[in-house]
Structures are given as structure tokens and as C-alpha cells.
Specification:
4 domains; 24% strand; five-stranded antiparallel sheet; 35% helix; Transferase(Phosphotransferase), domain 1; elongated; alpha+beta
């Protein structure tokens, strides 16, 4: 251990003499000339344990600045070494990525964003059984850079949830910066908004999954810090082969303490037109409610079957104000995606549209937390499931003898599990515990047939 001690300090005319010892062994005499404007730094050895330095005041300031710069650089290098050591198991070789993407062939491009192009490829190693993966290749011309790259590595390696896209690794080699993700085979949500094949029930499940992922970022369990995403939009919600939602693109996110009820960060405004919280845009103050607003826009996109903006005479026009107006005037029917109307349970629609509208409130205090959004979407999904299941039994119920009386789907299932007569007593129907339907014809009917 090194011990320092200032043994003497004398002030003479324009001169300060400071004598410093360390380890009771070595001695330095510093002569500081206060009146000299020039940089005059010299050093010589008086004996093997005695050093003497002559400095002007300017020289002292320069010396201190140089020492601080060296300390900062060394600290940064130490942190980077520690960082690389922690994440070395995630590192991919550039050669294997080039091989997987056929040297970044354009035919393998599956997307493009602020980070650059995204490629699909097949890896012959890593990935724990996953073969097809996605490679996001940094291209600084599109707006993002090194800080977003390392932030995404940090975030997605430490924050893991079934509704967050999984980071498999990264490559930082020969000037290339590439992120390796699990492949979401159905692409991003924005490409499916206007597709009639995406049912209302599927849409509810997708929104619920995305809400659960975002809720986890806002209020992670344990001692992790809260993450504010800053760029929630339908193109950043990816869909896997089973249509499970995965929140992606964490490069613009901010970290804040998770043990505080309210988090305010003064931040430069980033995000995407149409999804930005108006309060964040006006005041540059970021809160988790800013993400809630953006998610509310996504909920309306899913309901209306279109993106939240349109091109009008060469300019972008946001549709959010129109959507809010239609909700307030009870004219949702005018904006709901036509192909969804016949599928919707009224209670499901009411619960869903109510929470979506609350997310878009101008006042942050009036917006719900993401955990409440999750709760309401679960209720909306349950209403829809009950509605669809009851529709499956509608034809059966019509011919029941005697007529069935029930107050809920659960009561109906209990009655059906006990068995009922249909078709004027010619058919016996029952519902098994696993949901399978069992029909038995009377012997008389069977012989006649």
C-alpha cells in the first residue's frame, strides 16, 4: 500500500514549496511559481530517493488536466475490458455471419430501420438448436451508431422476458457491428394490421403479449433498473411462428431507478412521428407514461387496421386526434377495421377501446400504468374467448330438450358435461373435460339410418 504525507509547505514571494513523501522512502519537492505565466516543467534527481519539480501555475493546471485525462481514458479502457469479458460468450465471428447471410446478400434482407438492414441467415453453431436467426447490421447513415449498438447488447442480455426479443449475440470486428437475434418468422406487427386473416382474438393476444413485455421493462422484478423504451411502435413489435409478441429495438432506451413511483428524465427527444408523447415532445421530459402513450397509439392501430399516420399532399398527417374524437363521440364504428366488426364481442371491444383511449390522455397522471393495461387486455381477451366459445355451442343449444337455462359460459359447460338430449330426444350430447364433443344416437335412429 502506498501512503502519502505532505511534510512541508512554505510560501515565499511568488513561490510555494511543497514537500511530499510516500512510503517513508521517496520524497518530491514541488516548486510552484505563482507569477510565471509560462509552462515551465522540469525534473531532476537529487539522489535516488529525492525528486524535484519546478512548475508555474499554468503548468500545474496543465499537469492536473493531463492526469485527469489519463485517469479517464484508463478507467474507460478498464470498463470496456470488463464489459467485453462479461459478454465474450455472446461474441460471434464475422466470418460465420458472412457465411450465414451469403456475404450480406440482398436476397436475405428482411427489414430496415434506424439501425440499418436486417438479414435472415442460417447458423451452423451457437443458438441452442435455433438455426434461422436475424442479423441487424449497423449502418451509421441511418441515424444510429455505436452507443445504440452497445446499449442494445447491454439491455437485451440483462433483461430477459418471453415478450422481449432474445439477443443471441453480437459481432464487433473489422469495423462491423452486428446484433444477432432470434428470428421472428412473422415479421413485425405493422405488416399485419390491414390483413383480414389476423382475427380479433389474435390481435388481442398480440397486444397483451406486447403489454406484458413493456410492463416488465417499466417495473422489473428484483434490483434491476427501470427501462424507458422511447420508441414503442407497431414496427418494433415482432411476431414469432406462434404469433407471440416480442418487443424489440432497445437502442434508444433510457435507464432509470426502479424503486421510485415517478421517474422523470430530461432527455433529447427521439422516437417516431405519430407515436411520440406530446408532453415529451414539448418539454423534453421523459417518463414511463411516454411509453404508455405510444402503446395507446399501437392499440388504436390494431383496432383500426392501419398505421397512425398517412401521407397527404407530400406531408405526414397523424390520425391519432381523429381516433380520439371518434371514441369521445361514440363513433368507433366509423374507424374500426371492417373485417373485424362481425367477430367482436361488444364487452371485449368496450374494455379494449376504453384502455386504449386512456393511454392517449394528454395529462400523464390520467394515463394508466402498464400493469393496468395488461389487466384490462386480459379481461378483453377473456370476454372474446367466452363469446367465441358460446358461438360454438349456439346450434347445439337451439335443439336442446328441455331448453337450457344458464347465466354464464361456465354454467353452460357444467350442463353440457352432464349431457343433454338434442333433436327431439333422438341424440344424446355431452362435453368431455378436455373439451371434446361426444354424440350418441338412439338405437332406433341408428337402425333407421
Amino acid at each position: 500500500m502506498v501512503c502519502f504525507a505532505a511534510s512541508k509547505a512554505r510560501v515565499m514571494c511568488g513561490l510555494i514549496l511543497i514537500s511530499v513523501k510516500w512510503n517513508s522512502k521517496y520524497k518530491v519537492l514541488i516548486k510552484l511559481y505563482l507569477n510565471s505565466p509560462s509552462l515551465n516543467l522540469s525534473k531532476w534527481v537529487v539522489d535516488s530517493k529525492h525528486y524535484e519539480i519546478i512548475l508555474s501555475l499554468t503548468g500545474l493546471l496543465g499537469l492536473i488536466s493531463s492526469i485527469l485525462i489519463i485517469v479517464i481514458i484508463k478507467s474507460f479502457c478498464f470498463l470496456m475490458e470488463a464489459f467485453m469479458e462479461e459478454f465474450k460468450h455472446l461474441k460471434f465471428q464475422l466470418e460465420e455471419i458472412k457465411l450465414a447471410t451469403t456475404n450480406f446478400d440482398n436476397n436475405n434482407v428482411i427489414g430496415k430501420g434506424g439501425f440499418g438492414y436486417v438479414y435472415k441467415g442460417v447458423l451452423r453453431s451457437h443458438c441452442e438448436g435455433r438455426n434461422v436467426v436475424a442479423f441487424k447490421r449497423l449502418d451509421r447513415r441511418y441515424g444510429q451508431g455505436d452507443s445504440e449498438f452497445w446499449k442494445e447488447v447491454l439491455m437485451l442480455s440483462r433483461y430477459r422476458h418471453e415478450n422481449l426479443i432474445s439477443l443471441l449475440g453480437f459481432c464487433d470486428e473489422d469495423g462491423e457491428k452486428i446484433l444477432v437475434y432470434e428470428h421472428a418468422s412473422h415479421g413485425s406487427l405493422d405488416h399485419h394490421l390491414s390483413r383480414p386473416t389476423l382475427t380479433w382474438r389474435q390481435r388481442l393476444k398480440i397486444c397483451l403479449g406486447a403489454a406484458m413485455g413493456l410492463s416488465y421493462l417499466h417495473d422489473p422484478k428484483g434490483t434491476q433498473q427501470r427501462v424507458l423504451h422511447r420508441d414503442i411502435k407497431s414496427s418494433n413489435i415482432l411476431l414469432d411462428e406462434n404469433w407471440n409478441a416480442k418487443v424489440s429495438d432497445m437502442g434508444l432506451s433510457k435507464i432509470a431507478p426502479a424503486n421510485q413511483q415517478h421517474t422523470f428524465l430530461v432527455s433529447n427527444v427521439v422516437g417516431t412521428f405519430g407515436y411520440l408523447d406530446p408532453m415529451y415532445l414539448a418539454m423534453s421530459i421523459l417518463t414511463k407514461e411516454s411509453d404508455v402513450y405510444s402503446f395507446g397509439v399501437v392499440l388504436f392501430e390494431v383496432l383500426c387496421g392501419r398505421l397512425c399516420f398517412e401521407y397527404n399532399k407530400g406531408h405526414l398527417r397523424s390520425l391519432v386526434h381523429l381516433w380520439k374524437k371518434n371514441y369521445k363521440q361514440k363513433k368507433l364504428d366509423e374507424i374500426i377495421f371492417q373485417d373485424l366488426k362481425q367477430q367482436m364481442d361488444p364487452s371485449s371491444l368496450e374494455t379494449y377501446s376504453d384502455i386504449a383511449y386512456r393511454c392517449l390522455q394528454k395529462s400523464r397522471d390520467e394515463r394508466p400504468k402498464m400493469c393496468e393495461v395488461v389487466e384490462k387486455l386480459e379481461i378483453a381477451l377473456r370476454f372474446q374467448e367466452i363469446f367465441e366459445e358460446s358461438m360454438n355451442y349456439e346450434e347445439i343449444i337451439k335443439t336442446a330438450i328441455p331448453p337450457l337455462v344458464y347465466r354464464s359460459l361456465e354454467e353452460l359447460k357444467i350442463l353440457l358435461s352432464k349431457g343433454i338430449f338434442l333433436n327431439r330426444g333422438r341424440t344424446w350430447f355431452s362435453l368431455a373435460k378436455d373439451g371434446k364433443k361426444c354424440y350418441m344416437l338412439s338405437a332406433r335412429v341408428a337402425l333407421i339410418d
